[in-house]
C-alpha cells in the first residue's frame, strides 16, 4: 500500500495527536525498549524516544518510513509487515496507534506482537473498533448502488465493491472487545484493559472528500476520475448527517486494549 506520506503528515496530524493519550497509557520508562508498530511518519515514536525509552518503529509503507526517518534521524525505523515480522531482540512493550485496522490478518499480527515481547511485556494498542466509520461505509455502499453509469459489470466486480458485507472483502478490521480479546488470549495474552468508545473526529479542510481520497480511493483504483467524483458526491449525500455546523465529522469508534504476554 503506497501512501503519500507528506500529505498524510500535513492533513492528518489528528491521527497521532489522538495517540498522545494512548502514550500516557503506555507510560514508557527510561530503561525500556519499545516497538511502535505501524509508526507512520514517526511522531509518536519521537515522543516515546523523548521520554528516554529506546524505540524502534516499523511500518509496511516505505514512504511512511522514509518520512519518519527524515523527521527523526536518531530513531531506528524499518519497513516491515505487521502480520509477518520478527525482531532481533524482544522488547518490553509494543505500542500501536491507528494502524492495526489496516491489517486484516489480525491473528498473524497478534502472534508477531506476542513473539516480539519479553515475558510480562505489554501490548498497548488503539485501532478502529466495531462500528467504526459505519455511516461512511454504509454511504459508500449506497453510493456504489446508486451511481448509475458505473455499469452492472463494474459494480459486480468484488475488487470494486470491497466494502459490502457480509464477505471477507472489507479492507479494514474493526473488531469488538470480545472478538479482539479472544484473539489476544488465543495467542498468549492476558487482556487487562479494553474500551470501545466513540470519537467523533472533525475532518478539517479536506472534508469527507479528502478523507475518501486518502483512505478509500485505493480500493477503487480502476475507476475514472469522473466516476470517482460521482461516488464522492453520492457518499456526501448519503452521509449528510456527518456534516455538522459547517464541517464534516467522521464517526470514528476506537478500541483501546492493554494486554500482557503470559
Ligand atoms: C480510522 O482511523 O479509523 C480509519 C482510517 C482510515 C480508514 C478507515 C478507518
Automatic annotation (TrEMBL):
One of its GO terms (biological process) is methylation. Residues 34-121 form the Methyltransferase domain. Pfam families: Methyltransf_25. It comes from the Bacteria. The keyword Transferase applies. Keywords: Methyltransferase, Transferase. One of its GO terms (molecular function) is methyltransferase activity. This is Trans-aconitate methyltransferase.
Amino acid at each position: 500500500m503506497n501512501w503519500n506520506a507528506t500529505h498524510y503528515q500535513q492533513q492528518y496530524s489528528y491521527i497521532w495527536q489522538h495517540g498522545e493519550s494512548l502514550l500516557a497509557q503506555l507510560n514508557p520508562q527510561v530503561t525500556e525498549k519499545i516497538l511502535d508498530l505501524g509508526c507512520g511518519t514517526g511522531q509518536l515514536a519521537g515522543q516515546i524516544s523523548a521520554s528516554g525509552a529506546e524505540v524502534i518503529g516499523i511500518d509496511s509503507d516505505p514512504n511512511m518510513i522514509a518520512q519518519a526517518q527524515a523527521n527523526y534521524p536518531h530513531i531506528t525505523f524499518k519497513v516491515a509487515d505487521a502480520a509477518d515480522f520478527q525482531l532481533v531482540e524482544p522488547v518490553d512493550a509494543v505500542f500501536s496507534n491507528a494502524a492495526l485496522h489496516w491489517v486484516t490478518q489480525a491473528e498473524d499480527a497478534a502472534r508477531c506482537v506476542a513473539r516480539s515481547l519479553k515475558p510480562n511485556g505489554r501490548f498497548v494498542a488503539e485501532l478502529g473498533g466495531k462500528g467504526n466509520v459505519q455511516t461512511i461505509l454504509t454511504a459508500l455502499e449506497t453510493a456504489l448502488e446508486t451511481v448509475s453509469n458505473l455499469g452492472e459489470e463494474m459494480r459486480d466486480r468484488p475488487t470494486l465493491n470491497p466494502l459490502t458485507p457480509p464477505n471477507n472483502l472489507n479492507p479494514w478490521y474493526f473488531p469488538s472487545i470480545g472478538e479482539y480479546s479472544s484473539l489476544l488470549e488465543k495467542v498468549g495474552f492476558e487482556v487487562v484493559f479494553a474500551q470501545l468508545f466513540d470519537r467523533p473526529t472533525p475532518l478539517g479542510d479536506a472534508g469527507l472528500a479528502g478523507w475518501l481520497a486518502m483512505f478509500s480511493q485505493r480500493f477503487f483504483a480502476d475507476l475514472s476520475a469522473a466516476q470517482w467524483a460521482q461516488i464522492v458526491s453520492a457518499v456526501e449525500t448519503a452521509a449528510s448527517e456527518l456534516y455538522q455546523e459547517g464541517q464534516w465529522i467522521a464517526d470514528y469508534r476506537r478500541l483501546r486494549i492493554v494486554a500482557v504476554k503470559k
